[in-house]
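Collaborator request, handled under Task 6.
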Amino acid sequence: MTTTTTATPTAVRTLPALNRAVAVLGGVVAAVVANLIVWGIGAAAGGSFITTDGGKVMDVAPGGVIFMSAVPLLIGLTVAVLVSYLWTGVLRVAAVVGSVLSIATIALTVASDFDTASTIALSVMHVVLVPVIVVALEGVRKSITAR
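Structure tokens returned to the collaborator:
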């Protein structure tokens, strides 16, 4: 006599809130790490990351890179995720709005008096945020719709 057994797959369940927190914090960490790498390349290329604003000389790296990578992204992703509890469609809207704002604010970098290497590196940092925003919010959306 032959007995056949089939294994039933077990679903790994995680809490939706945990998925959302991981997406937000993971996105922020990924953006900071990626932008620090871009900063290092820009510094190696001769970028000083120094600008003058209102007569004051400001060095924006590496502390400014960390702060300006983490804080706006943390706020934006958190707001989108919190609103997604009421309306999941906000995640796609937030991905588009966040991406557009990230690219649009390159104009502020270009308008400043950074040297060329710093301007290019800082501009690339804005572009780096786009896939981070999209991937983080899409991950949240997929975890919601997978339930």
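The cover message to the collaborator said: "The CA atoms of residues 34 and 71 lie 15 Å apart. The chain is about 70% helix and 5% strand. Please let us know whether this matches your experimental observations."
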